[in-house]
Amino acid sequence: MAIRQIRYREDEILTKKAKLIENIDDKVKELAQDMLDTMYENDGIGLAACQVGMLKSLVVYDVSYIDEKRPKKVPVVMVNPKITSRSKSMVIVEEGCLSFPNVFEKVERHEKITVEYLDLNGKRHVKHAKGIEAVCIQHEVDHLSGVVFLDYVKIQHS
Q: Is the pTM of this model over 0.90?
């Protein structure tokens, strides 16, 4: 359990593609826990491994944590997540990112998604997500491809 250094803005690692995790060992489990600790410490709701300097296909998130009236921790860890379907309906949301402190922009995202991933025990899951959870997953999975939310803002303004 450790707080890791978040990579910011122009750090080259944020533009690189993550590598699939072949073996979920103790190092991967430790990284996942460190990522959760780092995310909570920085009041985030999601974090991809590249944001702490690791080019591994691993994301963590906890959208229940944003409920200010009843903040509770319900973390989700996704190993090798892959979005397999997206709704045609879109939503415009204001997004931020721990790697871009104090920067918030409106981004268009799919309202609903389906994502396949492994948990830390290697069990395969299929999750159907909507709303803020779908937005968060899309944001974090984008990081695994070297895409940051500001890339969408550039496209929308072109």
A: yes
Tokens of 65: 């944590």
Q: Please provide the size of the chain in residues.
A: 158
In 10 A of CB 113, how many CB atoms?
Answer: 21
Of 84, 20, 31, the C-alpha closest to 57 is 20
Question: What is the residue type of 111?
Answer: E
Can you say whether residue 62 is alpha, beta or left, with left for phi > 0 and alpha for psi between -120 and 50 degrees?
A: beta
Interatomic CA distance for residues 87 and 114, integer angstroms: 9
Beta bridge partners of 83: 115
| Domains, in order of start, for the chain | 15-156 (3.90.45.10)
d(CA 37, CA 141): 19
Has 68 been annotated as catalytic? no
Number of H helices, E strands in the chain: 3, 7
- What is the full per-residue pLDDT of the chain (158 aa) written as tens digits? 799 999 999 999 999 999 999 999 999 999 999 999 999 999 999 999 999 999 999 999 999 866 666 567 889 999 999 999 999 999 999 999 999 999 999 999 999 999 999 999 999 999 999 999 999 999 999 999 999 999 988 655 44
